[in-house]
Write a structure and sequence with these properties.
This protein is mostly beta strands and 341 residues long. It is 0% helix and 59% strand. The chain contains no helices and 24 strands. Strands 2, 4, 5, 6, 7, 8, 9, 10, 11, 12, 13, 14 and 15 form a 13-stranded antiparallel beta sheet that branches. Strands 19-18-17-16-24-23-22-21-20 form a 9-stranded antiparallel beta sheet, with no helix packed on it. A hairpin with a 3-residue loop joins strand 9 and strand 10. The two termini are 22 Å apart. 40% of the residues are buried.
Length: 341
């Protein structure tokens, strides 16, 4: 249920620890920032800690994603690839009991390394770029290799938010869109050039309730000569006084302190979605999917089901000054995700 109100969300402007010494939420960390300022010093709360670094690369021709996650009792490293023209899609996941070998740092800039005979990945960030190297010897019968460089333009603003369910349950998320990329993806004897595409980082660190639901939508692309990034969410943030809604235009973030309505058909996710701010007209978009990724896991009482739709955004968004930008066919995704974890 939507709260249907405009929030008073504090802006964080100094570096801050996410947690106090006893592992509970540091209330001074609650808010949003234009750059990652939080040290995610999680401790205690066995089985409740959830950590991930999700990278997604999209061009006009393909989408590739690489993720390393650790949800305390299980570690997961996974990749997936979609060729837009052929709709060729494949996904591969490697699991590790109790997250062995899935070590994630406290900071957005911390490096990641995962090594397994089925899948290895190295993600290392400098001040100006991130290098993503992946090697999967058997990806649907072919070898997949990536060497992609993600650029971080100087002063580029990103969306960083702490969602406070309680002192014991909370989440920090850094959503970074419109990051330009270069490099190659090799899949068998095919090569896919990432030049001209964009990267998105979804960095998450927190302590979650057992049952949760969220919508998430994002995308990057050109609109009327401007570079526009979208990040919208619903469900998981309801009732907290904070959300993850924002629009980036030419590297400048507009934080949207208002709920968004995700209107879609759960019987047919391929039908168009309507995504709109519930009070103002700051966001008024139609999302038209052209591909549905379904990932479903059930293990005893644990489970996860996600319908991630890949498609195009059309409509309008406004920046903090009220200027409207018309989107036509901007590539992105929208998802419906239920989890018991």
């Amino acid at each position: 249920m939507q709260n249907k109100k405009i929030y008073n969300e504090p802006e964080v402007k100094e570096k801050v620890d996410l947690c106090l010494a006893d592992g509970t939420l540091n209330r001074e960390a609650v808010g949003w920032s234009r750059h990652p300022l939080h040290n995610c010093n999680l401790s205690g709360s066995p089985l409740r800690k959830k950590q991930w670094n999700y990278w997604c690369i999209n061009t006009e021709n393909f989408l590739f994603s690489a993720t390393l996650s650790n949800i305390d009792y299980l570690g997961l490293a996974f990749i997936y690839f979609l060729d837009f023209a052929t709709k060729q899609f494949h996904e591969l996941t490697v699991t590790r009991i109790f997250g062995k070998g899935c070590d994630l740092g406290n900071l957005v800039s911390d490096p990641l390394v995962f090594t397994d005979p089925k899948l290895s990945m190295s993600i290392e960030q400098t001040e100006r770029d991130t290098r993503i190297i992946v090697d999967c010897p058997d990806f649907a019968g072919e070898r997949l290799k990536t060497d992609i460089k993600v650029h971080h333009p100087a002063q580029h603003e990103t969306l960083n938010v702490v969602i406070p369910w309680s002192d014991k349950l909370f989440q920090f998320t850094s959503k970074q869109h419109t990051l330009p990329v270069e490099g190659m993806i090799e899949l068998g004897d095919k090569q896919y050039d990432a030049q001209g595409g964009y990267a998105c980082l979804d960095f998450g660190r927190g302590k979650w309730p057992f049952s949760s639901f969220w919508n998430w939508a994002g995308g990057s692309g050109k609109a009327e000569g401007h570079l526009v990034g979208l990040n919208f969410g619903a469900g998981w943030t309801d009732g907290t006084g904070m959300n993850e809604n924002g629009v980036t235009v030419d590297g400048v973030l507009t934080k949207i302190s208002e709920d968004l309505l995700f209107d879609y058909d759960r019987e047919d996710y391929m039908k168009p979605w309507k995504i709109k701010t519930v009070i103002s007209n700051q966001v008024d978009l139609i999302f038209e999917p052209f591909f549905e990724r379904v990932a479903k896991t059930e293990v005893l009482i644990l489970g996860s089901e996600v319908h991630q739709m890949i498609g195009h955004f059309s409509g309008s968004v406004k920046d903090a000054g009220g200027k409207s930008y018309q989107l036509k066919g901007l590539i992105g995704w929208a998802e419906d995700h239920h989890a018991r974890w």
